[in-house]
Design a protein that fits this description.
The complex is a heterodimer of chains A (about 525) and B (about 525). Helix content of chain A is about 70%, strand content about 5%. Chain A has about 525 residues and is mostly helical. In chain A, the strands form two sheets. In chain A, strands 1-2-3 form a three-stranded antiparallel beta sheet. In chain A, strands 5-4-6 form a three-stranded antiparallel beta sheet, with no helix packed on it. Chain A is globular and about 70 Å long. Chain B has a domain of about 250 residues. The longest helix of chain B is centred in the last third of the chain and has 32 residues. Helices cover about 75% and strands about 5% of the residues of chain B. Chain B is built from 23 helices and two strands. In chain B, a hairpin with a 4-residue loop joins β1 and β2. Chain B is mainly α and about 525 residues long. In chain B, α11 packs antiparallel against α12, α14 packs antiparallel against α15 and α19 packs across α21. Chain B starts with 5 loop residues before the first helix and ends with a helix. The interface between A and B is medium-sized, with 34 and 35 residues.
Chain lengths: ~525, ~525
C-alpha cells in the first residue's frame, strides 16, 4: 500500500500559514532571544506577521476562482478540509485587522509604570515572595504574543473549516491560548485566574458537547465533510434522531463560543477577570470567528434541515437579546456591563443569522451578519481600549461609580467612550445603527417579522443601559477622588483612533464594506 | 441659480456654526457673566445668516408648482437604497421657515441662560445651532432613511440642552424624554426596515426615495401597509405628543430652559405632525383612512385632556406644555379629517402654534428668571410693575387661545371647518377645547399679572431692549399673519392638494381665500363683542 502525501495549496492557504509560522517563531524567540529584547522582538514579529497575513489575504481575495453559477467564489483546499471562499476571506481580513489593533493594546506599557498588563511570572502564586520578586525585577510574559498568534490562527481556521473534525481542531486551537491569556493579568490576579479556570472548565465542557454532536452527525451521514453531510441531510435517509441530536449538541458548542444565552454565563466573569487587552481581543475576534463557523455549518451542512433548527435559534436569539439587555442594566462593573452588551449583540447577530434570506433581492443574511461583525468588532476593541485608560491606584477603575463625572475630568476620553456607547446602542450616524439596520432588514426580508419587532423593543432596553453610563459620565459628580485618565502611548491611541474612525465611517458611508460583504458571495460547498 | 444646493446650505450652515461656537474660548459658570458674549454673538450671527439664506431660498420656491422643489438627490448607501435627497414642498418650506425664524429669536432671548449650566456657554449655543441644522434637514428630507437618521440625530442636541441647562430635575426630565423618543424611534425603525423589505422586492431594487416608494407601497399588501403605518404613527404620536404618550413633554418643558422648550415644542414636536402628513398619509393612504376613526378620537381626547389638565397646573411651563398637547390635538384633527380645509388649517396651525407658544415660553422665561419661581401662586400683579412684559404675555396668551385677528385664529378656524365637513361630532367636542383654552389662558393671566402686587414681585423689572427685540418679530408675525395669511396659504395649498390626491380624498379643490377667513373672523368678533 502506497502512501500519498496530501496535496496542500500553499499559496491559497498562505494567510493561515503565515500566522501559524509567526506563532511558532514566537515560541523560538522565547527560547533563544535574551529577555530584555524579547518584548521588542515579539511585538514587532507579531505586527509584521499580521500585516503580512493581511497582505496575503488581500492577494488571495483578488484571486478567488468563480464556481458554478457565479454566486460563490473560492476553492476547497487541503484535501477537502478547508474552504477558502468569499466569506472565509472576508472573515480573515476582519480578524487580522482587529488582531492588529489588539496587538497594539497588548504591547501598551505606558499605562502601568512601564510594564505591560500581563503578570510578571504567571507561575508565582499571588501574594507570595516569588510574585514580589518577579514584580520588582520588572519581569513580564512575552509569551502572550505567540499565544495570541495561535489563537488568531485558530480563529482563522475555524470559519474556513469544511470538515467537522478540522472545525473541532480549530476550536481547540483558538480556545486553549485564550484560556491561558485570561489568567495572565498583572493586577487582581486571583480574579484573573478564577476567570481563566471558569473559562477553561466551561469551554472544555462545551467542546465535549461539540465533539459528541460531531459523532452523532457522523453516525447519521457517514461523513464529517460538510458537503457530504449536506447531501445526507437533503436526502433524509433515516436516523432523524441522530441528526437532530447532533445538530442540537453542535449548536450548544457553537452558541457557547458566541456567548448566546443560555450558554452565556461565562462571559461576564471572564470578560471582567481577563486583562482588558485580552478581553478586547477575545470579545471581538472570538465572536467573529465563531459566527463565521456557525454560519458555514448551519447554512452549508444543515441548510436543508432549516425547519428543524430555526425554531431553536429563534428562541435562543430572543433569550440572548433579553438576557443581555436586561442583565446589563444591573451591572456595576464596566467590563461586566460590556460583557452583557456583547451577549445582547450576539442576540442581534442571531436575528440576522436566522433570517435565512438568500439574497438576490436586497441584503442577504450572510452579508448582513458579516457587516455587523465588522462594525461590532471595531467598536468593541475601541471601547475596551478606553476602559484601559481610566485608572486609579489599584489599576483600572472598573467600578461604574468610579466613572461618575468623567465628562468633567476628561472630556475627550468621556466623549470617545460615549460615542462608542451610542454606537453600541445603535444610534444613527454610527456603525452600530447601520449594522443593526442590515441584520434587521435581512431578517425582515426572510420573513422573521416577529423577531425583528422583539429585537427593536429590546434595543430600547439596551439603549437604556448604555445611556446610564453616559448620564453617569456627564450628569453626575465624581465620588471621592476622581480616577485619573492615564495618558497612553501611541499604541493605545492608534487603537482607539482606528476603532473610532471605523465606527464613524461605517456609520456614515458603509457602502464600500457592505459591497465587500456582498462580493463575498455565498459559501462554497 | 437653481442648481445651487440651497437646502444643503441651510442644513450645513448652522452645523458649521455649531462647530465654530465650540471652537471659541470656553466660558462657564460665574465667570461667564463677566466675560465677553462672543459665543452668543457668533451663534446669533450664524442663525441670522441662516435666516437670510432661508429667505433667499423661499423666493426660489414656485408657489404654482406642486411636488418637491429645490431638489437635490445623490446616492448615499446603495445597498440600503438610501439617498441623500432633500427637497421641499409647501409643508416643508413653512416648517423650515418656522425653524429659521425661531432660532435667532431663541438665541437672543436665551442670552444668559447658558451661564449656569453644567457645561460651557459655548456648548449651549452650539447645541442650539446643531439642532437647527438637523431640524431643517428633517423637514427637507425626501428619503425615508435620511429622514430617520436626522430624526434620531435631533435627540442628541435636545437631550444635552435639557439635561445640561435646566432646573433641578433636569436629569430625570432629559432621560424620560430620551427614552420616550428612542422607543418611538425604534418602533419606527421596524417600519423603516419593513419599507426596505417591500421595496427590495420591486423592480428597481431597494429604494427609500419618497417618490419611488409611494407607487411601491400603493401596490403592496393592505395588511403590510397597515402594520407599517402603525409603526410610523406611534413614533410620530409620541413626538407630537398625543394623548396617551404625551407624559414626557410637561416634565421636559418644566425643567428645560425656556429657549430649549421653544425649540422642543415649537420646532421638534412639529416633526411628529409633519411626519404624519409626509409619511403616514403620503406612503400609506389606505391605512390612514383605515385608522382615521381611532386617530380622530385620540386627537379629540388630546384636545380636551390637554386643556383640562392645563387648568389645574401650578407651574407655568407645565401649563403651557399641556396647552400644547391640546393644540397638537387640533393639528392631528386637521390632518386626519382628510379634507383641504383641515389640511391647510393644520399646516398653518403648525406655523402659528410655533409663534404663539414661542412667545408664551419665552416671556414666561423672562418672568421666571426675574422672580426665581415658576409657580403661579408666587405671582400676582405683575402688570403694575412690568407692563410691557405683561402686555406681551397677554398677546401670546390671546394668540394661544386663538383670538380673532391673531394668526392662530385663522388656522384653528380652518381646522374646525374641516372637522365639521368631515363629521360634525368631532367638531362639537373640539369646540370645548377652544372654551378650555380661553379658561386656562385667562385664568393664568388673571392669577399672575393682575391683582395686588404680591410680595417678591415688587422687584420684577420690565423687559429690557434685548428681550423686547427678541419678542418683536414674533409679535409682528402673529398680528401680521392674523390679518394677511395669504402668502403662507399660497405656499401651503399646492402641497395640500398633492397630499389629498395621494389619499384619494374626494373633495373640491381647496378654495380658501382671504375673504373666507375674514368673513369668519368678523363673525366671531361680532360674537365676542
Amino acid at each position: 500500500m502506497s502512501f500519498e502525501a496530501p496535496h496542500i495549496e500553499y499559496a491559497t492557504l498562505s494567510p493561515l500559514l503565515i500566522v501559524f509560522g509567526v506563532a511558532l517563531v514566537g515560541v523560538l524567540v522565547e527560547a533563544f532571544v535574551p529577555r530584555r529584547l524579547r518584548y521588542l522582538v515579539q511585538s514587532v514579529l507579531a505586527l509584521v506577521g499580521l500585516v503580512a497575513a493581511l497582505a496575503a489575504t488581500i492577494w488571495v481575495a483578488t484571486d478567488l476562482t468563480v464556481r458554478g453559477d457565479g454566486a460563490a467564489r473560492g476553492s476547497i483546499v487541503a484535501e477537502g478540509a478547508i474552504a477558502v471562499d468569499g466569506p472565509s476571506v472576508f472573515v480573515w481580513g476582519t480578524l487580522l485587522l482587529l488582531s492588529l489593533i489588539s496587538v497594539l493594546l497588548f504591547a501598551e506599557r505606558h499605562l502601568d509604570g512601564g510594564l505591560s498588563a500581563f503578570a510578571g511570572q504567571a507561575a508565582a502564586l499571588p501574594g507570595t515572595e516569588a510574585e514580589r520578586q518577579a514584580s520588582t525585577r520588572g519581569l513580564e510574559h512575552t509569551e502572550v504574543y505567540p499565544l495570541m498568534m495561535f489563537a488568531v490562527a485558530g480563529m482563522m481556521l475555524f470559519p474556513a473549516s469544511n470538515d467537522l473534525l478540522t472545525m473541532f481542531v480549530a476550536l481547540e486551537i483558538l480556545s486553549l491560548p485564550l484560556y491561558l491569556l485570561c489568567g495572565l493579568a498583572r493586577r487582581r490576579r486571583l480574579l484573573s485566574q478564577e476567570a481563566a479556570l471558569k473559562y477553561f472548565m466551561l469551554g472544555a465542557f462545551s467542546s465535549g458537547f461539540f465533539l459528541y454532536g460531531v459523532a452523532l452527525v457522523y453516525g447519521f451521514s457517514g461523513s464529517t465533510h460538510l458537503a457530504a453531510i449536506a447531501e445526507a441531510v437533503n436526502g433524509r435517509i433515516g436516523g432523524q434522531g441522530l441528526l437532530l441530536g447532533g445538530i442540537a449538541l453542535i449548536a450548544v458548542g457553537m452558541l457557547f463560543k458566541v456567548g448566546a444565552a443560555p450558554f452565556h454565563s461565562w462571559t461576564p466573569d471572564v470578560y471582567q477577570g481577563a486583562p482588558t487587552a485580552v478581553t478586547a481581543f477575545m470579545a471581538a475576534c472570538t465572536k467573529i470567528a465563531a459566527f463565521g463557523a456557525l454560519l458555514r455549518l448551519f447554512y452549508v451542512a444543515f441548510g436543508s434541515a432549516e425547519r428543524d433548527w430555526t425554531p431553536m435559534i429563534w428562541i435562543v436569539a430572543i433569550l440572548t437579546m433579553a438576557v443581555g439587555s436586561v442583565f446589563a442594566l444591573s451591572q456595576t462593573d464596566i467590563k461586566r456591563m460590556l460583557a452583557y452588551s456583547s451577549v445582547a449583540h450576539a442576540g442581534f447577530l442571531l436575528v440576522g443569522f436566522v433570517g435565512l434570506h438568500e439574497g438576490g433581492e436586497g441584503i442577504s443574511s450572510l452579508q448582513s451578519v458579516l457587516f455587523y461583525l465588522v462594525t461590532y468588532g471595531f467598536m468593541t476593541v475601541g471601547a475596551f481600549a478606553v476602559v484601559t485608560l481610566v485608572r486609579d491606584a489599584g489599576g483600572e477603575a472598573n467600578h461604574l461609580a468610579r466613572w461618575a463625572g468623567l465628562g468633567k475630568e476628561s472630556p475627550l476620553v468621556a466623549g470617545i467612550f460615549a460615542f462608542f456607547l451610542l454606537a453600541m446602542a445603535g444610534i444613527p450616524l454610527t456603525s452600530g445603527f447601520t449594522g443593526k439596520w442590515a441584520v434587521f432588514s435581512s431578517a425582515a426580508q426572510g420573513g422573521a417579522w416577529p423577531l425583528v419587532v422583539i429585537a427593536v423593543l429590546l434595543s430600547v432596553v439596551a439603549a437604556f443601559f448604555y445611556l446610564r453610563v453616559i448620564v453617569l459620565m456627564y450628569f453626575s459628580d465624581p465620588v471621592g477622588d476622581a480616577p485619573a485618565v492615564a495618558v497612553p502611548s501611541i499604541l493605545t491611541t492608534v487603537t482607539i483612533a482606528i476603532g473610532l474612525a471605523a465606527t464613524v465611517v461605517l456609520g456614515i458611508l458603509p457602502g464600500p464594506v457592505l459591497d465587500l460583504a456582498a462580493d463575498a458571495g455565498a459559501f462554497i460547498r | 441659480m437653481n442648481d445651487f444646493p440651497w437646502l444643503t446650505t441651510l442644513v450645513v450652515l448652522p452645523l458649521l456654526g455649531a462647530v465654530a461656537v465650540m471652537a471659541l474660548p470656553r466660558t462657564k459658570g460665574e465667570r461667564a457673566a463677566t466675560q465677553s458674549d462672543l459665543p452668543q454673538q457668533v451663534a446669533l450671527g450664524v442663525s441670522l445668516l441662516t435666516f437670510g439664506v432661508a429667505v433667499v431660498t423661499a423666493f426660489q420656491f414656485d408657489t404654482d408648482a406642486s411636488g418637491f422643489q429645490l431638489e437635490e438627490t445623490h446616492n448615499w448607501i446603495e445597498a440600503f437604497g438610501a439617498h441623500y435627497a432633500l427637497g421641499v414642498d409647501g409643508l416643508g418650506l413653512v416648517l423650515v421657515l418656522l425653524t429659521v425664524i425661531l432660532t435667532p429669536v431663541v438665541i437672543l432671548a436665551s442670552w444668559r441662560d447658558g451661564d449656569r449650566g453644567r457645561w460651557s456657554v459655548n456648548s449651549f449655543f452650539a447645541w442650539m445651532l446643531a439642532l437647527e441644522g438637523l431640524a431643517i434637514g428633517t423637514f427637507a428630507a425626501t428619503d425615508v432613511f435620511l429622514f430617520y437618521v436626522l430624526f434620531e440625530a435631533t435627540l442628541i442636541p435636545i437631550y444635552f440642552l435639557i439635561g445640561g441647562f435646566g432646573g433641578a430635575r433636569r436629569s430625570y426630565a432629559a432621560i424620560k424624554f430620551l427614552i420616550f423618543s428612542l422607543l418611538g424611534g425604534l418602533v419606527m425603525l421596524a417600519s423603516v426596515v419593513g419599507l426596505y423589505a417591500e421595496s427590495a422586492g420591486s423592480d428597481g431594487g431597494p429604494t427609500y426615495l419618497l417618490e419611488e416608494l409611494a407607487p411601491i407601497m400603493a401596490a403592496a399588501d393592505t395588511d403590510v401597509a397597515r402594520w407599517l403605518f402603525v409603526g410610523f404613527f406611534i413614533a410620530f404620536a409620541m413626538k407630537a405628543p398625543m394623548f396617551p404618550v404625551h407624559t414626557w413633554l410637561p416634565d421636559a418643558a418644566d425643567e428645560a430652559t425656556p429657549g430649549t422648550s421653544v425649540l422642543l415644542v415649537s420646532v421638534l414636536d412639529k416633526i411628529g405632525t409633519f411626519g404624519m402628513i409626509r409619511f403616514c398619509l403620503g406612503l400609506f393612504p389606505e391605512a390612514s383612512e383605515w385608522a382615521t376613526p381611532v386617530v380622530l378620537v385620540l386627537a379629540v381626547i388630546s384636545i380636551l385632556y390637554g386643556g383640562l389638565v392645563a387648568i389645574g397646573q401650578r407651574s407655568i411651563p407645565r401649563l403651557i406644555a399641556y396647552t400644547s398637547v391640546s393644540h397638537f390635538g387640533f393639528i392631528v384633527l386637521g390632518i386626519f379629517v382628510m379634507n383641504s380645509q383641515g389640511h391647510v388649517g393644520a399646516t398653518l396651525y403648525m406655523f402659528n402654534h410655533g409663534l404663539s407658544t414661542g412667545v408664551l415660553f419665552l416671556v414666561t422665561g423672562f418672568l421666571i428668571a426675574r422672580r426665581g419661581s415658576r409657580m403661579i401662586p408666587d405671582f400676582g400683579g405683575v402688570q403694575t410693575v412690568a407692563p410691557v412684559l405683561a402686555g406681551i404675555f397677554l398677546v401670546g396668551g390671546l394668540s394661544s387661545l386663538s383670538l380673532p385677528g391673531l394668526s392662530p385664529f385663522v388656522s384653528e378656524f380652518l381646522v374646525m371647518t374641516g372637522a365639521f365637513v368631515h363629521n360634525w361630532w368631532y367638531a362639537v367636542f373640539a369646540v370645548f377645547g377652544i372654551v378650555l383654552a380661553a379658561l386656562y389662558i385667562l385664568l393664568m393671566y388673571q392669577r399672575t399679572m393682575t391683582g395686588p402686587v404680591r410680595p417678591g414681585v415688587e422687584g420684577v423689572r420690565d423687559l429690557g431692549v434685548r428681550e423686547v427685540a427678541a419678542m418683536a418679530p414674533l409679535l409682528v408675525l402673529i398680528i401680521g399673519l392674523g390679518f394677511f395669511p395669504k402668502p403662507l396659504l399660497d405656499v401651503i395649498e399646492p402641497s395640500v392638494e398633492t397630499t389629498l390626491t395621494t389619499v384619494g380624498a374626494e373633495d373640491p379643490a381647496p378654495d380658501v381665500t382671504e375673504a373666507d377667513v375674514h368673513a369668519g373672523g368678523s363673525d366671531e368678533e361680532a360674537h365676542a363683542e
